[in-house]
Amino acid sequence: MRPVVSGGGARPTVLLTGASGVVGRSLLREPDGPRFIVATHSTPVPEAGDARPVRLDLTAERFGLDEDSYAALASEVDVVIHSAGLTEWGLPAEAYRGINIEGTRRIAEFAGRADATVHFMSTAFVAALADTAPVPLGADNVCRNYISSKREAERVLRESGVRHTVFRPTNLIGDSTTGWTSQGQIVQLMSDWLGRGRAPFVPAHPGIRMDFVPQDLLSKAVLRCVELGDEAGEFWVTYGPEAMDVETCLKLLVEHAAGRGRSLTPPPVVDADELAPDAIENTPPRTRSYLSVLRDVSEVTRCSGGVLPTSMPELRERYGIPHVDDTTAYLTSLAYAAEHLG
After folding, report:
1. Overall average pLDDT of the 183-205 stretch
2. Are 33 and 119 in contact (CB under 8 A)?
3. How many CA atoms lie within 13 A of 265 on its CB side?
4. Taking the CB of residue 41, how many other CB atoms lie within 10 A of it?
5. Please, are residues 209 and 170 in contact by the beta-carbon 8 Å criterion?
6. CA–CA gap between residue 108 and residue 169 (Å, rounded)
C-alpha cells in the first residue's frame, strides 16, 4: 500500500472526478487542500486554479487513455474522490448505468491499479431502499432509479475490494457562510417556486424532516478524511433529528419572501397519503410536476424512517465539521440564490 502522508507532511495527490459539478467545485474552493488532478470532460472548472486537468472518459476502458498514459496516471494518484455522476431524477434506469454504475466500476479498477483509496459520493436517500425501511418505496417514485444506481455503485465498490469510504449527503444547499453554489439544484428550485406562492398545498408525510446540508460541510468532511488518511467508513452527511420540520421550512420561506418585499401566505401542509387521487393530477403542468416531486421526496424520507440517518456528531468530533444551524444556512442559501441564480 502506498503511504498517504498527512499531518503537515507531503500532501497526497488526489484524482477528483465530477470536478465541474456542485460537489467538485465546492471541494476545489476549500483552502489548503491536497494536490488535485482534475478529471475533465467538457465543462470548464473555474475553481481548478493550478490543478492539472486530465481529460478522461470514466465509462471507457482505462478511461479512454492508452496503456502508458493510464499507467502514468496510476503511478501519481494516492487518492480518488469520486463525485462524478448523473444526479437528475426521473430518468429511466438505464440512463444512470453508464456513469453512476459502470463509471464507478472503472474507478474501482483504477484504484486497484494505483493502490489508491476511493472516497465515493453517494446519497443519503439509499436509506429508503434498505431492508429495514419501514415501508417500501414506490416503484414509480421519481427518485427511485437514481437511488438504485447509487446503491448499486456502493455495491460495486464494496465487492471490488479496494479501500474506500462512502459519503451519503442529503440534498445540498449553498455554502454555510456565503450561500455560494455553482448552480441551482432541487432545493433552490423548489424553494423559489414555493416562496412565490405557487403551491396550492404541500404534500408531506407526517413527522418528516426537511434535511438540507450546506455543501461546504460535505467538502470539509471529505478533505479532512483525505488528510487523515482514512481508508474505510460510511458517513451520512445529514442533520438527522436536528433537521427542520416542514412547518419551520415554510416559516423561513415567509421570512425570506418578506425580505424580498413579498407577502407570502404559507400553503397548507396535506398528508401525502390522504390526498385525493386527482389532487395533483388536476393542477397545471408545472404545478403538477413540482407537487409530484415534493410528494415523492417526502416518500423517500418516510421510507427512511421519517428522519434520515446521520453521522453528524461523528463528523463534528473526528473531522472538526463546524456546528452550523440548518435554518440559518437555509436562509443564507435562499438569499444567494435570489441574487445570483435568477
Report:
1. 95
2. no
3. 3
4. 14
5. no
6. 21
